[in-house]
Amino acid sequence: MDLNTRIKAFVELGQFMAQFSSKESVVAENRLNEKFYTDFEELIKDVKVHNPWFTEDNVRNAIASISEMLKEENLVEWVSSYISEINKREKINTVAVIMAGNIPLVGFHDMLCVLISGNKFLGKLSSDDKLLMPFIANILIDIEAEFVNLIEFTDSQIKTMDAVIATGSNNSARYFEYYFGKYPHIIRKNRNSVAILLGSETEEDLMKLGRDIFQYFGLGCRNVAKLFVPANYNFDIFYESIYEFQDIVSHNKYANNYEYNRTVYLMKNDPSLLDNNFLLLKQDETYSSPIGVLYYEFYETIAELNKKLESEKEQIQCVVSNSVDIIDAVPFGKAQCPALSDYADGVDTMKFLAGLK
Length: 357
What we know:
By secondary structure, the protein is an alpha/beta fold. It is 40% helix and 15% strand. It is built from 13 helices and 11 strands. A 6-stranded mixed β-sheet has the order 8-9-10-7-6-11, sandwiched between helices. A 5-stranded parallel β-sheet has the order 3-2-1-4-5, sandwiched between helices. β8 and β9 form a beta hairpin. α1 crosses α7 and α9 packs across α10. The two termini are 19 Å apart. The mean pLDDT is 95.
């Protein structure tokens, strides 16, 4: 199977998935519909029974992001940087991919990279996301039958592979290093995203920021978990702008986390605590805020803040801001819309895979 065939297969997969990107999406004329449409629609609605965090809206958001990635022009432009390395490939390597399950289909990009680079994907699913990925893999195999020998999922201990991509916590990363350190590997740890406010943001800007905070209930590494704000920042404006997200507290698991954290902070009598009955704001110098909580920290100048973020970049996935002075800033509302080249932890997965011997 040559590279163009692999690209065309993913383009067709993206066209099929685009039909499910929202509840209002139009059903297209697609040859895959007769075999997969009804079952996929039911899975999208029912997967929350297995994992309550995977609401229908969140699953559709993930599907929308993937279907945008898989547009032909996006795939062709992305792959063009790696064609030379891919064509030098001497063999098909088996790449073990140990996936997280914090948000729906979070491991899809790794599977895409492994297969587009001409290697075999050996996936170990998270128990939190074990239904969606195999279903999509079956659709891909139906599109291009040769993928049947290049896609495998396992529940067993992985022993035979040529390279490893593993995503997990800081604790699990130590385990991964111990067991897989002798293989070529990418091992990802905890990261969080931050937003930088200047105080001049519009209500629309802050509403978009709300999407970066609340989408997937804040469980993704690209969700904003902390705000950097200028001294004497007026948080009333921020709270008013994100009020449309108030219904998030009607989700039982989110509400339980929010209430628990509020109780803990109130018992500590934390003077920095702010509350609007669905999101707690707490002053904290660390990055990983609990569910239902958003940390904040004051800054003096953007120049000093840029230095701080550079020195602590190993903890940060992306930075959201509309300031032209912030290095590599992501626009408000786009944190959970990564491009194909927005690699997790800033490590070029495709370069790693294309360079395997």
